[in-house]
UniProtKB/TrEMBL annotation:
One of its GO terms (biological process) is DNA catabolic process. Residues 31-123 form the OB-fold nucleic acid binding domain. CDD domains: ExoVII_LU_OBF. Heterooligomer composed of large and small subunits. It is found in: Cytoplasm. This is Exodeoxyribonuclease 7 large subunit. InterPro entries: Exonuc_VII_L (IPR003753), Exonuc_VII_lsu_C (IPR020579), OB-fold_nuc-bd_dom (IPR025824). Its EC number is 3.1.11.6. Residues 146-361 form the Exonuclease VII large subunit C-terminal domain. Residues 1-29 are annotated as: Disordered. Bidirectionally degrades single-stranded DNA into large acid-insoluble oligonucleotides, which are then degraded further into small acid-soluble oligonucleotides. PANTHER family: EXODEOXYRIBONUCLEASE 7 LARGE SUBUNIT (PTHR30008).
Length: 428
């Protein structure tokens, strides 16, 4: 079927402007202008859409902004234009790297064939929602005890090696090196570079933290970056990074942003520094201050030692000035007579007691001698006993044939009984 074109000349192809793009052929092509007009009419039917992404380019020329936005998950990008009248209504802190949502309408320019999007509205993505999520995370971590002062590790007084995690060639890196080396010229800093914003911030920072924490020479780790808006500091409130810092065995110092910036890393870290410069001052002692302190302590020690020695000398002189120590023989001389009298009295008492004891002993000896059987035996009497020393008091105890021992004044003799005899015989 052949389409009739009023402008066409029989036997010749119709003019390109008269051929719609959908009806074009090799013999009857459409024109570029007609194609661009058709595309423009098609694009204008789309209307406005809301799109989410990250600003990757922001160039302001003549009051207008020409930029690009990329998808958060892929490398897909679009171009956009913001006219000056619209720019006045948008937030003034929009910049490259911001996570935003924008209301865009497609624009196709027939003269150049360029395709772009015109922005009518743009704002940061759910910053309020993100802040609410951060607050919920803050409460959860506090409940777990990750913010407790009791779990925070003390910093060494003079670290041998300092681990530094920061952006490459960043001002934060320069500030830490400059201030640390000014305070202690021989300080050693081992730096691990990591992205300090964007999607790579969290994984690269965690990897650097694990590497430095595993190094036995590292005594303290500083995580530092310059200031920024809350959107760019979100990585330092990421739960993965916070738990990695809490699990580190090496003390960690948070030095993120400026004094007013407060990511959750500040609460989990063992020490929060207000700036990277403050971190260097908190971690490394000032050599001049330490020298002054040592000099002050030496002066105090010398003064205290001098006072103590002087006090002890004064006390010794005071003791030596007392009469008892100045002329100790005076005390002995003054009490010599008393000692002689006490010694003399002691001798008298001892001699008197000895005499008394001697007389008592003689009396007891005389009494004992009077009562002793020895005296009786000395007068010619004898003692007869049998068996186990039983003394014979009755003749019936020694019948005839009984063996006996007869004790006299001087010795004993053995005897055998012939039996009891008559008293008349014994009397004879």
């Amino acid at each position: 079927m052949t389409t009739f074109h009023p402008e066409a000349v029989p036997g010749q192809p119709p003019p390109p402007d008269s051929v719609p793009p959908r009806d074009s052929t090799a013999q009857a092509p459409t024109s570029v202008a007609r194609l661009n007009d058709t595309i423009r009419g098609f694009v204008e039917k789309w209307g406005s859409v809301w799109v989410e992404g990250e600003i990757t380019s922001w160039n302001q020329r003549g009051g207008n902004v020409f930029g690009r936005m990329k998808d958060l998950a892929t490398d897909a990008t679009i171009s956009f234009r913001i006219w000056s009248s619209t720019l006045q209504r948008l937030p003034r802190d929009l910049k490259v790297g911001d996570h935003i949502i924008a209301c865009v309408k497609p624009d196709y320019f027939p003269r150049t064939g360029d395709f772009s999007f015109s922005v009518s509205a743009m704002r940061h993505v759910g910053l309020g929602d993100q802040l609410e999520k951060l607050e919920q995370l803050r409460l959860a971590l506090r409940k777990e005890g990750l913010f407790d002062p009791s779990r925070k590790k003390p910093l060494p007084f003079l670290p041998r090696h300092i681990g530094l995690i920061t952006g490459e060639n960043s001002d934060a890196e320069k500030d830490v090196h400059r201030n640390a080396e000014l305070r202690w010229p021989h300080v050693l800093i081992r730096t691990k570079h990591a992205a300090v914003q964007g999607d790579r911030c969290v994984p690269e920072t965690i990897a650097a933290l694990k590497a430095l924490d595993a190094d036995p020479e590292i005594d303290v780790i500083i995580i530092a970056r310059g200031g920024g808006d809350p959107q760019t500091l979100l990585g330092f409130s990421d739960e993965r990074m916070l738990r990695a810092v809490a699990a580190a065995s090496t003390p960690v110092v948070s030095a993120i942003g400026h004094e007013n910036d407060h990511p959750l890393l500040d609460d989990v870290a063992d020490l929060r520094a207000s700036t990277p410069t403050d971190a260097a001052k908190r971690v490394v002692p000032d050599v001049s201050e330490q020298r002054a302190l040592v000099a002050q302590l030496r002066a105090r020690l010398a003064s205290r030692l001098s006072q103590r020695v002087g006090h002890d000398i004064a006390q010794l002189d005071q003791l030596r000035s007392r009469p008892v120590l100045r002329t100790p023989e005076t005390t002995l001389t003054a009490r010599a007579q008393e000692i002689w009298m006490r010694a003399s009295r002691g001798r008298d008492l001892v001699e008197r007691d000895v005499s008394l004891r001697e007389r008592r002993t003689m009396e007891l000896r005389a009494s004992l001698r009077a009562l002793s059987p020895v005296a009786t035996l000395a007068r010619g009497y004898a003692i007869a006993h049998i068996g186990d020393g039983v003394i014979v008091r009755d003749a019936a105890q020694a019948p005839a044939g009984t063996a006996m021992t007869i004790t006299v004044a001087r010795g004993s003799v053995a005897a055998r009984s012939d039996g009891e005899v008559e008293e008349s015989s014994t009397g004879a």
